[in-house]
Write a structure and sequence with these properties.
By secondary structure, the chain is mainly alpha-helical. It contains one helix and no strands. 70% of the residues lie in helices and 0% in strands. It is elongated. The model has no long low-confidence stretch (mean pLDDT 91).
C-alpha cells in the first residue's frame, strides 16, 4: 500500500446538548421500530405454531 492511499480517520467533534438530545431521540425511535417488528414476527410465529398443532392433532 502506498502512503497516499492511507487516509486518516478524522475524529468527530462532540455533540452539543441539543444535538445529543436529537440523536438520542432518533436512536430511541429506531430501537422502538425494531422492537415492534420483532414482536410482530414473534406473534406471527406463535400463531403459526398453534395452527400447526391443531392440524397435526
Amino acid at each position: 500500500m502506498r502512503l497516499y492511499e492511507i487516509q486518516t480517520i478524522k475524529p468527530k467533534p462532540p455533540l452539543t446538548p441539543a444535538q445529543a438530545r436529537i440523536a438520542q431521540l432518533q436512536n430511541t425511535a429506531t430501537n422502538a421500530k425494531q422492537a415492534v417488528k420483532q414482536e410482530r414476527l414473534r406473534q406471527q410465529q406463535t400463531k403459526l405454531n398453534h395452527q400447526r398443532a391443531k392440524v397435526s392433532v
